[in-house]
Structure of ATP-binding cassette domain-containing protein:
Amino acid sequence: MATAEPLVPSGPAVVASDLTRVYRSATGETYALRGVDLTIGGGTLTVVAGPSGSGKSSLLTLVSARERPSAGELSVLGSDVAGAPTPVLRRLRHRRIGYVPQRASTGLFPHLTAADHVRQVATWRRAGGDEVDDVLASVGLAARAGHRPASMSGGEQQRLAVAMALVGRPSLVVADEPTAELDHGNADLVLDALDGVARAGSAVVVSSHDARVTERAGRLLRLRDGVLSSETDRARETVAVIDSAGRLQLPPALLERFPSRRVVVEADGHHVRLRAPEDPS
Ligand SMILES: Nc1ncnc2c1ncn2[C@@H]1O[C@H](COP(=O)(O)OP(=O)(O)OP(=O)(O)O)[C@@H](O)[C@H]1O
């Protein structure tokens, strides 16, 4: 059945410029994202990888329009996330953005069955009832449709969260470590389902430490210390990212060559060379 919302975004799904996220608390400030420039289009499975604390979840909550940036610009499906009224962002999330939280149980209600959860989201997205059964089957939950969260395992709850995110094929799907609790077989089911909606034109963004996920990426973004450090495309070419302020993050192995954290930059024809200064003092 056709959905009421466009399946394929007309422009990029996400455009971010100098994106910054700061968490403030009584004990101080944490810069989770420090000026990320990024464009994410439809039709690709984009994977965000990086060590624990590098800012993956912070980035995903922003690109899914669940939180507003502390600074910088962020457009999601044509809406300005910093400036749009809260009801506009809520409607955008309900209708056009599927989101799988890192802890699936946080998005589930104890009194609803698996099918009720998916049906509720299908209503927001004006998807047909037949899609509810199809999407539950696609993540291996057909036999659990009548179960409530309390009688589902952590992995089943995670697959239910994926089914809720995918029903109605929203324009943008954002999943925070969606295979973290899954065995190989179920991880493959979930990745096939995510890849399927990407191939159908949705923009799909997944964070993961898991090699099973990074191997499937159409585009792999690496975050380090809140900075987008490198990007690998489908042809497996990896490029370093220079942000709008001209900053470039060196891979850790190269960084070790410059213990003084000072570098001489030399341009020579088509090449730019970095070398340690003679006298780093
Ligand atoms: N609500 C919060 N309040 C304060 N600091 C936070 C909050 N959420 C995240 N942080 C901090 O922001 C930084 C980035 O965290 P984030 O959860 O985005 O990283 P991550 O790459 O998703 O980590 P993980 O792989 O462990 O989930 C970390 O230093 C983290 O401690």
About this structure: Residues 1-7 have pLDDT under 50 and may be disordered. The pocket of adenosine-5'-triphosphate is lined by residues 23, 25, 30, 32, 50, 52-58 (CB under 6 Å).
